[in-house]
């Protein structure tokens, strides 16, 4: 489990195509500290498994399902990525519960800068809009953010200087894709209420 608090901006140093999958090599001096084969690291909000680790770099395999459901397929050598290690037991939940399971992708629609913050408007797939509410939580490229305004096909978030400086949202421009993960609690509530209405829950 992750919290959506990005630990560092990493970089893609190599991309190897493996038929219907690919292997990334990434540089991340912070997240590679103590890293071992089989560990999980969130890359732009996608939970990936460490295959190899050497120095401040690690490799991770990305299967076709992940490439199709996320924006990782658009990454190339030199791309900057948000990196986060899983939350340690007993650690602080600084953001919200993030699984690293991307629900879909959005697109940066626009940016409105202010003196001390910036408002970013992002498109929202129709099948995810019911999970996004004003002042609720959403994960964008692995960053835990609070929704400012939510519409049927978009939402907005306000970014403080720290977020702009230390994450990919500081450099994303209109037209750029972003990974989205909605609040998992909302999905469980929807399923449970649906089962109650149909009586399916009692039959299990």
What does this protein structure show overall?
With 204 residues, the protein is of the alpha+beta class. The protein has two domains: 77 residues, Elongation Factor Tu (Ef-tu), domain 3 (Beta Barrel); 88 residues, Elongation Factor Tu (Ef-tu), domain 3 (Beta Barrel), CATH 2.40.30.20. It has four helices and twelve strands. The protein has a six-stranded antiparallel β-barrel with strand order 1-2-5-4-3-6. A hairpin with a 2-residue loop joins strand 3 and strand 4. The protein starts with 7 loop residues before the first strand and ends with a helix.
Span between termini = 27 Å
- Overall pLDDT level: 91
Please name the CATH architecture of the largest domain.
Beta Barrel
Strand order of the largest sheet: 1-2-5-4-3-6
Number of strands: 12
> What is the beta-strand fraction?
35-45%
Structural class computed from helices and strand pairing: alpha+beta
Number of helices: 4
Helix and strand sequence: EEEEEHEEEEEEHEHH
**What spatial form do the alpha-carbon principal axes imply?**
globular
Task: Give the proportion of residues in helices.
Answer: 10-25%
Major sheet details: 6 strands, antiparallel, barrel
The third-level CATH topology of the largest domain is Elongation Factor Tu (Ef-tu), domain 3
The tally of structural domains comes to 2
CA-based gyration radius: 17 Å
CATH classification class of the largest domain: Mainly Beta
Which runs of at least 5 residues are low in confidence (pLDDT < 50)?
none
Keywords for this entry:
204 residues, alpha+beta, Elongation Factor Tu (Ef-tu), domain 3, 2 domains, six-stranded antiparallel β-barrel, globular, riboflavin biosynthesis, Lumazine-bd, riboflavin synthase activity, EC 2.5.1.9
